[in-house]
Design goal:
The complex is a heterodimer. By secondary structure, chain A is α+β, with helices and mostly antiparallel strands. Helices cover 35% and strands 25% of the residues of chain A. In chain A, helix 1 crosses helix 3. Chain A starts with a strand and ends in a 14-residue tail after the last helix. Helix content of chain B is 46%, strand content 23%. Chain B is built from 15 helices and 18 strands. In chain B, the strands form four sheets. A five-stranded antiparallel beta sheet of chain B has the order 2-1-6-5-4. In chain B, strands 8-7-11-10-9 form a five-stranded antiparallel beta sheet, sandwiched between helices. Classes of the chains: A alpha+beta, B alpha+beta. At the A-B interface, helix 2, strand 3, strand 5 and helix 3 of A face strand 3, strand 4 and strand 5 of B.
Chain lengths: 106, 546
Amino acid sequence: MSRYRFTLFVAGDTARSQRAYASLQRICRERLGEEFTIELVDVVSAPEKAEEHRVLTTPTVVKEHPEPRRRIILGPFQDVSGVLSGHTTFLAGEAPADEGEDPREE
Amino acid sequence: MSTAGPRPARHAGDERLRTIIDRLADGVVIVSRSGVVRFANPAAQRLFGRTAEELLESELGLPTLAGETTEIDVVRRGGETAAAELRAVEVEWEGEPALLVSLRDVTDRREAEERRRQAEAEQAARRHAEADAKRARFLSNVSSVLSASLDYHATLAMLAELAVPELADWCVIDVVEEDGRIARVAAAHADGDRAPLLSVLREEFPPRRDGPTPSAQALRTGKTVQVARVTDEWLAQHTTAPEHAALLRALGSRSLMAVPLTARAETLGAVTLVCGERQYTRNDLATAEDFAQRAALSVSNARLYAAAQEASRAKSEFLAVMSHELRTPLNAVMGYADLLQAGIAGPVDERQRGYLDRVKDGARHLEGIIDEILAFSRMEAGYEALRTRRVDLRDVARQAADLLRPLARQKELALRLALPDGPAVAETDPEKVLQILRNLGTNAVKFTDAGEVAIEVASEGDRRLVRVADTGIGISRANQERIFEPFWQVEQSNRREVGGTGLGLSVARRTAELLGGTLMLESAPGRGSTFTLSLPAAADGDGDES
């Protein structure tokens, strides 16, 4: 079992959905190495899952494991810095080590 | 840290603010720092398709970045989605730090954008299809010009006209003439006013194989020269004089292609296509090379055709001369012998009459030989024309027998005709069949000293057979094929007295093949010979002759 488990909710097989999936994967790889899995849920083809999770917007990513569960609305992924600098806690479940650094300079 | 925007009401005094928020067209949602919904205005409820109660305490999630706009999908009850523009600002809510999320329904805008994008894609596809159609039309025009004429000078001139303005603003075509000279055979300019400059160009700076021009380069190397952008520097290097460069500038030269005319592994010339306004693309290059390839093939074909025509003309001229030169004196010999025999020039005694008969026999014999040589030559040249029709081969065999009977009688040979009861119909040229039978029959009589010559007609499946058999000296196996070779006669040295050219059987076999048939021989020395002419039956069998 991977250390980190995420569920990514998207609406339809659109360019936006694909971009969201690719970006999340990239962020996770950069931050978490290979220690993660991402489950992809399309709310258009599986509306019951959206309802079950009470997903209100897409793309939304839910951190299932480890606790605490968190959910985040993914914006445009040029703004990956937002995920990293503002929500490192969300991803790793622990205090950000390098807050303030702009990962775009990587 | 932005705190701009409406601050949600906390006190009764903020009722006015509350009214504004309630009536706002945009959805307003307050979420806690953990992403849980604390407040949703009516517009937000409509957008999500859920009541305030359903939304409160639901987890919306945290937007990635505060203070920035992003486009997301809103998932309504039942899974339907709507496009929304999301903007979040940090606020304080009931004493806690929170986020104010405003959501604007942009479904219409997104759909409009989608429609616009689609329309643009369709337009691009249409433009593309039009360009393709234009190119196909152009090349099809090229093809029809090419097939219209075998005079390649005229053809290339038409092609040059066709290339402007379709493929170039101006175009010149240079060809390596058969004497190795480079000739500018065609030139065209889309702008009629500037067309005379092309004549000046040809007169003052004629194409040369060793010249610096792209055309010369393409001619020498057999490779396409493409110059995306013609600069002053380029012009200086690829012209023979400043006036030459000036002339090219005056003609309008921004981008050019020089494509070799290559066919049958030979570079026959080059076509130079020049644009004054735009730059040539890869597509243009493909069209130009296609164009050049077709033009080159037409030049090559025209030249091959001309060479073949010339050879064939020489041959037929020879035949005409031969026929005339040989027959004219022969006619005189025969004609005057007839006159003498008729006593026109005075009384003729028996001995003289006999001599005249010998003269006439010799002349007739010579005439036969000339006819054979002419028939052979015509066949060699491929001039033999067939006049085929449905023929009952029994009729042809009867005619052949009638012709041979006097000859056979002279040698005291029997002439036997063996015909089937029913018709033996072939779709063939009766004159040619008769010619073959006559030839075979004459030979049979010639090489038979006792016995008979027989002509038989038979049907075997879809073949119609005519046999000419004799009881003569026969032919050894070794010679059975050689007798069909031209100018060959069995035992040439000691059989010379039988006469003939040695062409008869060769012509007979070729004629048989021309008719779609075969001519075969069965023979053994001392046991006679049987020649079998086999012809295909008429397509619908042996119906009664009409």
